[in-house]
Amino acid sequence: MNIGIDLGTQRRQVIRRVAVWRNGHPEIIPDEEGNRSFASYVSFSRDGRLVGGRAKLQQSVNPKNTIFGVKRVLGHGFRDLEIQEDIRKSPFSYVDIGGVPHIEVEVRDRKESFAPEEIIAVQLSKMVRMAEAYTGEKVHRAVVSIPPGFSRIQRQAVQDACEIAGLEEPYLLGETSAAVVYYGSYSWAGAGLGGGGEKRMLVIDVGAGTTSVSAMVTEEGVVEVVSASSNLRLGGSDFDNAHQAKARSSCERAKVLLSSSLKASVELDISGDVHYIFPISRDELNVRCESKFEAILDQAAQVVSQSSTSKSPVTKSSIQEILLVGGATRMTGIVDELKAYFSETNPSITSVRDLDEAVVFGCAIQAAVLGEGKIHGPRDWLDTILLLDVVPQSLGVAVTRGNDAGEFKTLPSDGGSPHERAFSRTLPRNSTIPTKKTETFSCSSIDGISESTVSIQVYEGESDIPTANTFLGCFELHGIRSLPNSEVRRIQVSFDIDARGRIVVTAEVVGGERGQTRSMEVRVGRMPQYEKDRLKNRAREWDALDRQYEALTQRRNNLEEYCYSFRDGVEGVHEGIAQCLQWLDDTASRSVTNGEYTVQEDSLAAALQRILPPGYIIMRTGADQAQES
Ligand SMILES: Nc1ncnc2c1ncn2[C@@H]1O[C@H](COP(=O)(O)OP(=O)(O)OP(=O)(O)O)[C@@H](O)[C@H]1O
């Protein structure tokens, strides 16, 4: 079975969703409490680890060891400016291990550090377990959503996290593409995606912490992303902040209410005694959030302008439809701003069905398309979907600044100063993949020398200065001989990217002899295999501990619930119940074994038996759920 996973956002509201294609439609897989999404929290304590909603409940009592929001630092270096604020404000500690931010927590009375990929892997494994428990089938593969503007390193980090979680060959799908797949599944079913002819669309996804915009062309089942960008620092929670920083959850409630009514109030509880209520209207909220709405429009305008270099540009006037995705697009102010901005051409503005779940549904559909085994339900129209993605950031090589040989830029020799280098974009951002692009360079450093070496230094990014971009790898071509008559040697460099985003860079001496071609697969940011294997083993050990710890926690919760239900409902049982509740209180901050729970349950049962009428069944609170550690 293949599943779809929405990794959700990076802020406090962080949620994950998982879905599967069953009986002809995508279906959400609920967590053990029946919730359709779960908090992406992982909490460590002296006894073990909790994941999801139960972990989030630990945050107020165990903030230093309760982790959330790591997707934000995924693929970043410890010193990257973008994540400094996240590191500084985080209630748990980040440490620098080999230049990569790791999370440090206290587990079983000692400090342990975890790579961000490992924390994401914990959540992925939980989703796999949920899916397997729900369907009774084994999960083979997952389609995982990512912001479409994720860089190569960030994509690789998600891929590594999947591998640590035991998910081989994950398929990463842009959130906006996933939403369009879901949109197509009900709006064009039968006729295939874009059955009504070619359509130019803008897809705007405003989630809790990320805003992604993609310009797309769809036709006959083909969904072609023309250009895309993601802002990982703009989303629904910024509207809550713009409105009032101190009462974020109350502000969020008021914001949600104002999407359907004109007035609401924000409640602020200062100290328990001092309680303020601020009335707020929809218009006021929209005014406070105006700069954020403008930022969304700017991002949309940028995506449209970047599409001009594509084969099928999506211009402002050619957009026929704007598809809204993500919970925060329910804010009426966003729609009003879009209507005003596009007033000349008036494209239709549609909200995708199931705004919050459209992305995971799209992933589940794509997972079914990729599935080769048993597919539940009809899939004729599924087979027509073809997704064409783009290169998220420009790819190219370093060249020697101011040393162009005629029409060609010059590749650097192995020596020379990096300051003299410029960045040559062979594959500009938003080139459709799969693709292969070749550029020819000169190699003038061989002048006067019989043999020379050139260095192919591969970068990703938008700066003209190579070192301001991300270094993806480097290789050399040796033994390049000079030609007679001082003719300049030429070297062709090709970038070959397959549909999954795998990049192979090849350099070849034009007319050169054997051995004068070399290739390199870009493996930037990829964790070394030995490290992945180590983390996979550690994940397996933790999985076993998690189950044990979850079962013990469940046993404590059941016992507590049982005591309260009796205390509130039956006369005369106070003593036994009070004794048990006292024991739960006394043991709250220490490890308790299954044996101790059994002793406690037995003494509670004995106490109740003395009071309750004969035949009254004393419930056990889950003794068989936990295995003795
Ligand atoms: N009726 C509503 N009006 C305004 N905002 C809403 C409404 N309902 C939900 N939201 C906001 O939508 C956001 C959550 O949206 P969604 O579930 O799409 O995000 P996500 O997928 O977790 O995040 P991201 O896409 O950033 O990864 C929250 O900020 C929430 O407050």
UniProtKB/TrEMBL annotation:
Entry's EC annotation: 3.6.4.10
List where this protein forms a coiled coil. Answer: none
Q: What residue range is the signal peptide?
A: none
Q: What domain of life is recorded for the organism?
A: Eukaryota
What reaction does this catalyse? ATP + H2O = ADP + phosphate + H(+)
Keyword presence, DNA damage: no
Q: Which UniProt keywords apply?
A: ATP-binding, Chaperone, Nucleotide-binding
* Pfam name, any one: HSP70
Q: What class of enzyme is it?
A: hydrolase
Any one Gene Ontology molecular-function term assigned to this protein's record? ATP binding
InterPro entries in alphabetical order:
ATPase_NBD, HSP70_peptide-bd_sf, Hsp_70_fam
Keyword Chaperone found: yes
Similarity field? Belongs to the heat shock protein 70 family.
Instruction: Give the protein's recorded name.
Output: non-chaperonin molecular chaperone ATPase
Q: What broad taxonomic lineage does this protein's source fall under?
A: Eukaryota, Fungi, Dikarya, Basidiomycota, Agaricomycotina
